[in-house]
Specification:
It contains 15 helices and 13 strands. By secondary structure, it is α/β, with parallel strands linked by helices. The chain has one domain: Rossmann fold, CATH 3.40.50. Strands 3-4-7-6-5-8-9-10-12 form a nine-stranded mixed β-sheet, sandwiched between helices. The chain has a two-stranded antiparallel sheet with strand order 1-2. It has a two-stranded parallel ribbon with strand order 11-13. Helix 6 crosses helix 7 and helix 12 runs antiparallel to helix 13. It binds NADP nicotinamide-adenine-dinucleotide phosphate. NADP nicotinamide-adenine-dinucleotide phosphate binds next to helix 5 and helix 7. Its EC number is 1.7.-.-. Keywords: Oxidoreductase.
């Protein structure tokens, strides 16, 4: 398509085919696709390039005469989704202008399908904001919210995802280029005039750390600080949800890791999400760095005891050597990730992740979840099948 216009695409489930029309002057072409279905209607924003890959053709840019007008189909959408559509239709992406309206603020959630992201979406909804979930697979939209399809490596799609949002949650992926991807996102956010960025980092992020992931997080934190963007950093400790990776051997009554008897102030990812929701929606957190932990530091043997108690059967913790751990996971994880995981566990084993912080309670106004709460709520995962 030769014009400089973006495209607004509405899939009207009462009509056949796509309704495609220009929506604003911008070199980045985006599209909004709403899917049929009762109740909450997921809205998916897709870069035009992706649409082309999926068979939307140039000729489709002319609205089919038989299709209902786009405005009709908007009437069936939730109010927040209509507002998002209206913004794109009018080309408005000035955040102050948005804030001066009665529309609830819009928060972009990256990693929306991930451990924290998936818990953050309902937490944000409880705060009354409009959620825009950034996803990679348009076939798997997050129900009940606006979805935008973007890979962090796709600058045009990320810029479109950021358009008009009032705050964004940046959750880096577990990939070797995680730092570069997050820095790219932050640069685009800065260029787009994003009013607030909440960055998910990690406990003990440090440029001199022996753990590569902590060095990468420190690099991203430093870059974001240097941009002068309104931002807040969250540094969670090891998620209790990481135990789900051990479900296979836990089903056999044990799990192992090279951590010895060291205590770790593990945190429930739901608390990370709840804290993030507070920071994304409330004032007074600019420039803050919050380290997020559980209410106490526990050894892996104590974690095993909590799982045993919740599952009603014995689950043992086996301390392993780093070599045994690596050998067991070789072939399951790429070398960079396996080596990074071994570095992570060595850091835990040295007792470097045992300090308890009160940030979760301070931010949310209630105590952080304990390992016993996690074990109780996830007992089904750890019950022998
Ligand atoms: N795990 C822990 O205990 C822990 C503790 C502290 C901090 N952290 C930090 O948390 C972050 C997330 O790690 P995690 O293991 O918990 O992963 P996760 O958030 O559960 O999953 C990664 C998420 O990122 C998305 N994603 C992956 N590659 C992407 C890309 N190129 N562009 C856009 N989105 C992409 C995935 O989407 P798809 O569904 O499309 O794959 C998924 O939603 C990391 O920075 C990690 O260091 C983790």
């Amino acid at each position: 398509m030769g014009s400089e216009h973006s495209l607004l695409v509405i899939r009207d489930h009462a009509a056949v085919g796509w309704t495609v029309r220009p929506c604003r002057e911008r070199s980045i072409r985006t599209a909004i696709v709403s899917r049929g279905g009762g109740g909450a209607v997921p809205i998916v924003t897709i870069p035009a390039r992706t649409l082309a890959d999926r068979g939307v053709r140039e000729e489709d840019a002319q609205p089919p005469r038989t299709a209902r007008p786009a405005a009709d189909s908007l009437d069936a959408r939730p109010a927040a989704a209509r507002a998002a559509l209206d913004d794109l239709r009018t080309g408005r992406h000035d955040n102050q202008e948005r804030n001066s309206t009665m529309n609830p603020p819009t928060v972009l959630v990256t990693g929306a399908t991930g451990t924290v992201g998936s818990a953050l979406i309902p937490a944000l909804q409880a705060h009354g904001v409009t959620v825009r979930a950034m996803i990679r697979d348009p076939a798997r939209p997050v129900p009940g919210v606006e979805n935008v399809v973007a890979d962090l490596a796709d600058a045009a799609a990320v810029a479109a995802a950021l358009d008009g949002v009032d705050a964004a949650f940046l959750n880096g992926p577990s990939t070797p280029d995680a730092a570069a991807l997050q820095i790219g996102f932050a640069d685009l956010a800065h260029a787009e005039g994003l009013p607030r960025l909440v960055l998910l980092s990690q406990y003990a992020a440090n440029p001199d750390s022996a753990v590569r992931f902590l060095r990468w997080h420190a690099e991203v934190e430093a870059h974001v600080r240097g941009l002068g963007l309104d931002h807040t950093v969250l540094r969670p400790n090891l998620y209790l949800q990481s135990l789900r990776a051990f479900a296979g051997t836990i089903a056999q009554g044990w799990f192992g890791a090279p951590v010895g008897g060291a205590a770790v102030s593990v945190v429930d990812a739901r608390d990370v999400a709840d804290a993030a929701a507070v920071v994304l929606t409330g004032a007074g957190h600019t420039g803050a760095v919050y380290t997020l932990t559980g209410p106490r530091a526990v050894t892996h043997a104590e974690i095993a005891a909590a799982l045993s108690s919740a599952a009603g059967r014995d689950i043992a913790f086996h301390d392993t050597s780093a070599a045994e751990f690596s050998a067991a996971l070789a072939g399951l994880l790429p070398p960079w990730q396996l080596d990074g995981l071994v570095e992570d566990y060595a850091h835990y084993a040295r007792g470097e992740a045992a300090t308890v912080y009160t940030s979760v309670a301070d931010l949310t106004g209630r105590p952080a979840r304990d390992v016993a709460d996690f074990a109780r709520d996830h007992a089904a995962l750890f019950t022998r099948s």
